[in-house]
């Protein structure tokens, strides 16, 4: 390239010198020499500029679509690498250790389990507690049924107290009617004995009282539940009974006090 520029420069110089000589000697057609000199000079200048441009090193390339995509890819790749590095550092951080549990100290879960066990124990104790009147009511219902055949609820009232040395249980119950008064009477004695045996199995050794009621018609024609039998036993008499061999018909004889409606005797 520099060689071409040198040749053009030399040619332009030769042309210029030739024109000047021609004008001086001949003095004819001077304008032709001038034109030739201008043309040669212009060509030399263009060649000079081209040579300069071609010799400038091209260090940077214009941004293209492919180059832009590559730059974006490189940026995303760098961000992904930074993210992986941060995650790795987060994983490698030492985990916070729980505070060691002091000796004898229970965790919240253990405390909750203990609390539930205590509640279950209390509930079981309540279910089998003959001092609880609701439990006594349920015991009677489970033993002889929760409803009499007169359509009355079996249990009218339940009482438990410990006024003196021995506990006391008192029951007001509705009896079942039967075909005859004798069978009705026998049924009340039998049910009384079954209830006493159930209490005995629960460990009860106190006083016992029960009264039975049946719907009767009074002189005015009104029907209402009336007491027809009552049995009252001392704690001593209650604990003496051997329920495996006991005859419920003997209950009036061992009772401290006994009452039955005169209709059963007539």
Structure description:
By secondary structure, this protein is an alpha+beta fold. The protein has two domains: 2-54; 127-264, no CATH class. It has helices at residues 2-26, 30-55, 65-92, 108-127, 133-144, 181-201, 235-240, 251-254, and strands at residues 155-161, 168-174, 207-217, 223-233, 257-260. It has a five-stranded mixed sheet with strand order 1-2-3-4-5. Strand 3 (207-217) and strand 4 (223-233) form a beta hairpin. Helix 1 runs antiparallel to helix 2 (30-55) and helix 5 (133-144) crosses helix 6.
* SSE order, one letter for each helix or strand: HHHHHEEHEEHHE
Tally the helices. Answer: 8
The overall average pLDDT, rounded, is: 77
Sheet of most strands: 5 strands, mixed
Secondary structural class: alpha+beta
Task: Offer a quick outline of the entry.
The chain is of the alpha+beta class and 266 residues long. The chain is built from 8 helices and 5 strands, in the order H-H-H-H-H-E-E-H-E-E-H-H-E.
């Amino acid at each position: 390239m520099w060689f071409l520029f040198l040749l053009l420069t030399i040619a332009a110089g030769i042309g210029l010198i030739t024109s000047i000589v021609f004008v001086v000697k001949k003095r004819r057609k001077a304008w032709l020499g001038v034109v030739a000199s201008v043309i040669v000079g212009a060509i030399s200048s263009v060649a000079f500029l081209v040579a300069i441009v071609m010799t400038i090193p091209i260090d940077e390339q214009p941004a293209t679509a492919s180059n832009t995509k590559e730059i974006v890819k490189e940026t995303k790749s760098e961000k992904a690498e930074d993210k992986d590095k941060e995650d790795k550092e987060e994983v490698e951080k030492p985990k916070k250790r729980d505070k060691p549990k002091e000796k004898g100290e229970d965790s919240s879960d253990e405390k909750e389990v203990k609390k539930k066990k205590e509640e279950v124990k209390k509930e079981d104790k309540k279910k089998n507690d003959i001092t609880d009147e609701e439990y006594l009511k349920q015991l009677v219902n489970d033993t002889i049924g929760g409803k009499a055949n007169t359509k009355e609820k079996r249990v009218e009232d339940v009482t438990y107290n410990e006024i003196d040395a021995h506990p006391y249980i008192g029951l007001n119950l509705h009896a079942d009617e039967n075909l005859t008064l004798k069978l009705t009477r026998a049924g009340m004695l039998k049910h009384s004995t079954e209830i006493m045996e159930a209490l005995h199995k629960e460990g009860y050794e106190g006083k016992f009282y029960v009264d039975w009621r049946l719907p009767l018609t009074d002189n005015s024609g009104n029907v209402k539940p009336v007491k027809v039998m009552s049995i009252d036993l001392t704690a001593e008499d209650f604990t003496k009974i051997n329920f495996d061999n006991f005859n419920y018909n003997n209950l009036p004889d061992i009772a401290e006090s006994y009452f039955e409606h005169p209709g059963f005797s007539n």
